[in-house]
């Protein structure tokens, strides 16, 4: 979204023409559907505003996202993190099932937060993106990326200090030594670079 704003009119026209040729939405990420896969689902608040900046909102949204997936859709999230302006969740699903549910979740939280903040009509979310996991290496690098995300964005110095993450469950189930092995074997390197441009 942000790279597009810095393009010339000619570059924008070329990008839109390519998207049209492929049948992609003009100004939204394409979503592939029809089959069950493991996906990294990511969504950011519009303009990356820190709308979920309070501990109460982070907790409330984490419970609505992860608890809702489990209770409403019978989906078990593989890994997740919620931060003040975006979230990531790794989940095995069919996008046709997940997409409308996420839309309802985003709409409901937007309405609630806009009412609480006395900002009716404010745009809270900028859609969501999905990345299908393609290999074991991709899976574990994504897992590491999700759990390291609060450090990447400067919210904490240690991932384990961020309470709104599945990392704590992984530490309990697998232990720190196993997670360090995964970290060393499946480094994130530049994973996610340019996603926010």
From TrEMBL:
From the Swiss-Prot or TrEMBL record, give the protein name: Transposase IS200-like domain-containing protein
Limits of the Transposase IS200-like domain: 45-149
Species of origin: Desulfosudis oleivorans (strain DSM 6200 / JCM 39069 / Hxd3) (Desulfococcus oleovorans)
Query: What top-level branch of life does the organism fall under?
Result: Bacteria
The record's section on PANTHER family has: REP-ASSOCIATED TYROSINE TRANSPOSASE
Q: Which GO terms describe its molecular function?
A: sequence-specific DNA binding; transposase activity
Biological process GO terms, please? DNA transposition
- NCBIfam families, per database record: REP_Tyr_transpos
């Amino acid at each position: 979204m942000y790279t597009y704003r810095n393009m010339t009119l000619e570059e924008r026209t070329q990008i839109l023409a390519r998207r049209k040729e492929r049948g992609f939405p003009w100004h939204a990420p394409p979503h592939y559907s029809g089959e069950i896969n493991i996906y990294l689902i990511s969504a950011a608040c519009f303009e990356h505003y820190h709308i979920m900046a309070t501990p109460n909102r982070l907790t409330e949204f984490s419970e609505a996202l992860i608890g809702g997936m489990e209770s409403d859709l019978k989906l078990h999230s593989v890994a997740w993190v919620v931060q003040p302006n975006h979230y990531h969740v790794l989940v095995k699903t069919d996008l046709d099932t997940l997409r409308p549910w996420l839309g309802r979740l985003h709409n409901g939280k937007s309405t609630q937060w806009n009412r609480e903040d006395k900002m009716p009509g404010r745009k809270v979310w900028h859609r969501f993106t999905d990345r299908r996991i393609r290999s074991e290496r991709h899976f574990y690098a994504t897992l590491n990326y999700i759990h390291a995300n609060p450090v990447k964005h400067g919210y904490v110095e240690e991932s384990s200090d961020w309470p709104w993450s599945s990392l704590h469950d992984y530490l309990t189930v697998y232990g720190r030594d196993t997670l360090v092995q995964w970290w060393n074997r499946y480094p994130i390197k530049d994973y996610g670079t340019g996603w926010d441009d």
